[in-house]
């Protein structure tokens, strides 16, 4: 029987898929906890390194947890189990499991967060929304065309159907009957790329965490510049805002498949957590809306 890879072997594969050098300068990616010489047979993948995910990892006897979001994004002076983040580290290590983070380096990678989201909504002829200087296939977000034109309402309904269900659901800004053909997507918080979305000529922008003022200003500018719109234009780009967790979860399946495929069949088993770790638990609609 072939011996399982070590944690160092698995980290090497992950860093080949998602080079740490491609992470944003403010980010914190890579191995957070774990012994590089321990064998890895089971890997659990999740969006967030939260207590419920640790519970799942321990129950499944995972040797490694790979998450998208960092546990420690800022410097810390203690990982004592008296803190909620320290407790995560202690519980994983006590169970013999490590923790690895692939964040903005996974956002931009081929078959990363952006590609997974683009595939899910059916974008073709696509490219990065903001490409890396030295790699035309790697970069933040994706922009491309839908196979068939649709309305903003139908596009948003499709997004709601293919993403994990969350309390937020899908919010839309724009004429629901307007035509949508060219779409930009970005998993996670996306209002910092509004200028790139406009420059790409997208009819709609699918992302998460849209704030009031940036979204309002984008839509006001779109309406102003479309005072005499060309046929088929109605103040683009429209906005389709989903839960942060939901926009990034589709990538986990790609990461799980690519990691398992890097080793001899049956050596490493991967599992995608289906726990909804979005922090919002309910939504109360305004009466009559």
TrEMBL record:
Keywords, sorted A to Z: Metal-binding
Taxonomic superkingdom: Bacteria
InterPro entries the record matches: DUF34/NIF3, DUF34/NIF3_sf
Any one Pfam family match given in the protein's UniProt record, by short name: DUF34_NIF3
Subunit structure: Homohexamer.
Similarity remark: Belongs to the GTP cyclohydrolase I type 2/NIF3 family.
Protein name: GTP cyclohydrolase 1 type 2 homolog
Lineage: Bacteria, Bacillati, Actinomycetota, Actinomycetes, Micrococcales
């Amino acid at each position: 029987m072939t011996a399982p890879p070590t944690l160092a072997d698995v980290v090497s594969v992950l860093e080949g898929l998602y080079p740490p050098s491609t992470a944003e300068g403010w980010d914190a990616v890579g191995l957070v906890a774990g012994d590089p010489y321990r064998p890895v047979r089971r890997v659990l993948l999740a969006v967030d390194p939260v207590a419920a995910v640790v519970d799942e990892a321990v129950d499944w006897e995972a040797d490694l947890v790979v998450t998208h979001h960092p546990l420690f994004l800022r410097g810390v002076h203690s990982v004592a189990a008296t803190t909620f983040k320290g407790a995560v580290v202690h519980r994983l290590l006590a169970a013999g499991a490590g923790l690895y983070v692939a964040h903005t380096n996974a956002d931009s990678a081929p078959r990363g967060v952006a590609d997974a989201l683009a595939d899910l909504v059916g974008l073709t002829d696509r490219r990065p929304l903001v490409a890396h200087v030295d790699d035309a296939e790697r970069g933040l977000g994706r922009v491309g065309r839908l196979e068939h034109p649709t309305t903003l309402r139908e596009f948003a309904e499709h997004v709601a159907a293919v993403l994990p269900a969350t309390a937020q659901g899908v919010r839309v800004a724009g004429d629901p009957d307007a035509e949508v053909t060219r779409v930009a997507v970005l998993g996670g918080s996306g209002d910092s790329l509004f200028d790139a979305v406009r420059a790409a000529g997208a009819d709609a922008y699918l992302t998460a965490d849209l704030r009031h003022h940036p979204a309002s200003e984008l839509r006001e500018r779109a309406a102003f510049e479309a005072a005499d719109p060309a046929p088929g234009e109605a103040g683009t780009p429209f906005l389709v805002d989903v839960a942060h967790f939901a926009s990034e979860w589709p990538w986990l399946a790609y990461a799980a498949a690519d990691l398992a495929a890097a080793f001899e069949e049956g050596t490493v088993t991967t599992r995608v957590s289906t726990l909804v770790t979005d922090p919002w638990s309910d939504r109360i609609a305004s009466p009559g809306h």
